[in-house]
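Hi R.,

Here's the chain you asked about this morning:
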Amino acid sequence: MTPREKLLAEAQKRILITDGAFGTEIQNWKLVEADYAGNRGLSHDQKGNNDILALTKPEVPASIHRAYFEAGADIAETNTFSANRISQADYGAEHLVREINLESAKMARAIADEFEAKDGRPRFVAGAIGPTNKTLSLSPDVNDPGYREIDFDYLKDVYREQIDALVEGGIDFVLIETVFDTLNAKAGIMAAIEAGHALGRDLPIMLSMTLTDLSGRNLSGHTVEAFWHAVRHARPVTIGLNCSFGAEQLRPHVKTLAEIADTLIMVYPNAGLPNELGAYDEEPATTAGLVGEWAEAGQVNILGGCCGSTPAHIKAIADGVRGLAPRKIVTPEVRTRLAGLEPMTMAA
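And the predicted structure, written out as tokens:
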């Protein structure tokens, strides 16, 4: 079976679990500059460049992957959120983009395969693609609304470089996540489609939007409904939400997306809202209880955590939804028939 077929088959049986935060887990290691920089001889300070740890201190991301699998995760996201040419330019590490992604993917793949071999339960690897700090839809200059720092083709090439390396390293899915600009996501989608064509096979895409306000819009102004209709053509294997808010704030938007999308719903919220010091206080049992309400309502297929979540949060979520039925995918055509309406057809 292809990764898409394998995931869909598993998602029919149960609610699957993706992993949790990497950044906040890495912070717990109290790493210093030398840990990040290693012996790479880079001209810029590297502290905070979490992605480069695949090359300079691989035991850190490896231990985090293991902790999440031990907690019950079915899906590992590579530690590559900022492993692209634009983001790595801040660290003077653009030339390491391919190596970072390749090694991160190989690491996650090896650990996923190790856990699958132990118990026979399928494990998957999603190549994490972050949004970069550039936006195609909005000008960074308030005095020049038409100005853009980069264009669509440039961003597509940035994503393609990252995707090619992740695929070579063994990922199952391209995860375009924390989408604050729908046009940025479209550049990522185009890059993934072109990469799949070059390989001569299906390269499944996962998409995850992030909201910038409680009305349910991202930075480029799209609601969850508009976002879905803007990306549905890519046949994403999952669509969903992550980051920005905790589960409490995402509740109505998860319901909306679950009612309109004819693919798997994957949601991984923050562990609540940050406190005045920027830390996340929400206890694992609280997060698990909130996302468990979505599961009981039949609204989700895959659950996990974003900022502030820990292996303890993932374990609580996995334990909490065990035995609950996954959301059933209903196509628009079936939904129309269930409503007792005939679908519109073109006149002869």
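The first strand starts at residue 16 and ends at 17.

Let me know if you need anything else.
M.
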